[in-house]
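Handover notes (outgoing to incoming on-call)

Open items:
1. Polysaccharide polymerase: sequence verified, structure written out, both below. Nothing else pending on this one.
2. Nothing else urgent.
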Amino acid sequence: MLLRNFFIFIYLSITVFLFSTLEATISLWLSFFGNALILTFITYYHIFIERRYSPFISTYIVFNYLFFLVAPLAQISEFNIMEAPTFTHHFPFSELTFIKTNGLIAIFNIVFFLFYVAGKDYIKLKKQIPTRKSYSLSNIFFFIVLSILVLIINYDFFLDELSRPSWLQSTYSVSQLLIIKKVLFLLPLAGTILCIDYFKNSNINTQKWIIASAFLLASISLLLLFKNPLTEKRNALGPIYLLLIFLFVPKLLNSNVKSTLLLFVVMIIGFPLSQIFTHVDYGFEEILSNPSLLFAKNQLSEGYMSLNYDAFINIGVVMEHVEFDGLSYGYQLLSALLFFVPRSLWVAKPDASGLIVGNHVIDHYDFYFANLSNPYIAEGYMNFGIIGVIFMAIVLALSIVYFLTWLNSSNLFKKSIAFYFAMHLLFLLRGDFTNGFAYFIGTFIGLYLLPKVILAFVNLFFYKKVWVQKS
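Polysaccharide polymerase structure tokens:
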């Protein structure tokens, strides 16, 4: 109870500060305040009422708080001091657009919450019965060998990723990047999961314990080689590293308040504080003589004007795009659902929504960069208007309810995929949906389907038994 009260105190303190310092018209102020009340109710339910562990809602709350409250409110403070208020991609600030955007967010949050609660209460999670151990040290060793082979075969690709700056586009195709980075490079993580499961479910002697520990060290070393800040973007590293924490130190993330507090501190407090230092305009001597310069007015809010925090305002871009060009009626969504179909075979394949948003600000506001984010909410509006917003909210709620059953499974691979999806929601909700969906499907294949096929093959042809994992 103490930790829950501590979190709510931080949450409410920041919220009160945001609204007490917001300089806006009463209608704009009320539109944000209304969404803050809805999100606060969801947060209270998640922290104090919800009995099931659901890191999905923790991520959902933190995303909404950061991208739909903190960031746009900070942006308004910047707009107030501009002669011609425009965002970084030159899209002009409009009070009416912001109010309409808040309306769409409110509709989405209400529908999502109602269907989540109804769906969660409808399903009954079965009591998990411990299953017989089916993994062996040979299984783990096989995954380590496969991981090393993947490194050897893709050594040139690995060196290219290691040396290529994040802003420079890869010379490899999108399909190659997806298969290698999101599927094959996850084999060491699958080996790590096997090791953890081996320790938990086996009565092992000292010799086997030492061998398993060596295999675990090898798997983690290979994983860190494949997945590190030099070879992977932070939005992909975050879910993997948080999954490792969940697997190795579950007590740090085994309750709703713990997962919410951790994400809240990292995303809403940690990043902005680090931003103060990384975006400061003063020299070391000036700061040393006057430390208050670190917290100069607008120093923090300026960082929220970057494209990293364009989710809220891009909903407005999508509304304008629909006003100019009309709804897609589901055609644009095919770029996500059929992401695996190459453009060489499907010339008329629709663009990802982020590219559509980028092209809109290029065509109408003389911007220069095309591939922008597009929030999950805007995906629905772009395709079916308000009906699409409601539809996407229902789909998300039911998807989370489904993965709740996986999170409570005795199958550690299912549990890992479910937790990964919970952390991946930050990327999926920010958008665009095509990339978020494709990346998750790649991870789903690399961390669940491929290991399942490999283990079945190994046990069938090498050990004359079929791998069976009850869940």
